[in-house]
UniProtKB/TrEMBL annotation:
The lineage of its organism: Bacteria, Pseudomonadati, Pseudomonadota, Betaproteobacteria, Burkholderiales. One of its GO terms (molecular function) is glycosyltransferase activity. This is Glycosyl transferase. It comes from the Bacteria. Belongs to the glycosyltransferase 2 family. Keywords: Glycosyltransferase, Transferase. Residues 3-125 form the Glycosyltransferase 2-like domain.
Length: 331
């Protein structure tokens, strides 16, 4: 059904719980693909032992590069970006499938109802505390709670996890790396979707995901994504969300501008921000030697290794495949 892309940075207990929830609570067969940032906590060894397809970088390359790298392995028609600190509840994927069937086209951005342990002030997120991590997670309580939920579908809302067609993902070029390590990369992605005509931004009420909450972003130096968004697009995130994305819930087809128009305040701020070194200052402050963290394939691939992997795959020899990957370098 879906190619589920999960970037992970030394977050193994959460990743295990996330993937376990997919395996136990999915109605359909999905392709799970992980990008391992560094993996010094045992993540790399674990995904190999589990036979999970993955890409790998020497260090944390941020969500934009991680997603773009792992997306090249996706083979299903629909791509789901899932954080490693999320937990899927029963029916999450069946609800997505039902919503897609009613749409009749693939130009859409679907997301789940998001449940978090703390009230962050986001009106689109449900606050209900079932634990802040694997150690104190109340799964039984969560499943009882979500089974009784009656949340409706809501248009004009773009949350996580994000489900888009693989065609749409590649049409807009995935995530923009200038937003590394990732703040406001979601909003930038929404703008790119808007420019190619996507007007369906829907939170699917029957798809419910628990989010422990920003377990990786709390460990990094954040980029000033709001300013970078304004410098790139000439409009603030707030104005774009309020005047365009949210308006898709009620606006008649074809009445919203194909190219957003920035109000005077946004244009004035852009002039002021032009004195700064965006995005290079934030990129350098976050990771001054990003190329050293990346891994790349051989020019024409390792044909001998690929043939050996194919043969091992036919006989289900996962350990043999993993040893070949270790020798040749991960995908």
């Amino acid at each position: 059904m879906f190619s589920i892309l999960i970037p992970s940075w030394n977050n193994l207990p959460y990743l295990k719980l996330c993937i376990d929830s997919i395996r136990r609570h999915s109605a359909f067969d999905h392709e799970i693909i992980v990008h391992v940032n560094e993996g010094s906590d045992g993540t790399l060894e674990w995904v190999r032992a589990e036979g999970i397809r993955h890409t790998w970088s020497h260090g944390n390359v941020g969500v934009c590069l991680a997603l773009n790298d792992v997306a090249r392995l996706a083979t299903r028609d629909w791509i789901l970006f899932l954080n490693d600190d999320m937990f899927c509840t029963p029916g999450w994927d069946r609800a997505f499938e039902a919503s897609l069937r009613t749409l009749g086209h693939s130009s859409a951005y679907l997301s789940s109802v998001l449940i978090e342990p703390a009230d962050t002030g986001n009106a689109n997120v449900t606050a209900a505390n079932f634990g802040t991590g694997p150690d104190n997670f109340d799964e039984a309580g969560l499943l009882s709670y979500t089974a009784k939920m009656t949340a409706p579908d809501r248009d004009g809302v773009a949350l996580q996890p994000m489900l888009v067609s693989r065609q749409l993902w590649h049409t807009v070029g995935g995530y923009s790396i200038e937003f590394g390590p990732g703040m406001s990369s979601d909003d930038d992605f929404l703008m790119k979707l808007w420019l190619v005509g996507c007007r369906v931004f829907r939170s699917v009420g029957a798809s419910r995901i628990y989010h422990f909450g920003c377990k990786s972003t709390g460990r990094i130096r954040r980029n000033r994504g709001g300013r970078q968004f304004l410098m790139k697009w000439g409009i603030s995130q707030r104005d774009f969300t309020r005047n365009y994305v949210r308006q898709t819930a009620s606006a008649a087809t074809g009445t919203l501008a194909n190219v957003p128009r920035a109000p005077f305040k946004s244009r004035l701020k852009r002039v002021i921000y032009a004195l700064g070194r965006y995005p290079f200052e934030d990129l350098e402050g976050w990771e001054p030697n990003l190329p050293a963290k990346l891994t790349f394939m051989k020019p024409f691939g390792d044909k001998v290794a690929e043939k050996a992997k194919d043969e091992a795959g036919k006989t289900g020899e996962v350990n043999k495949i993993n040893k070949i990957d270790e020798k040749a370098g991960d995908n």
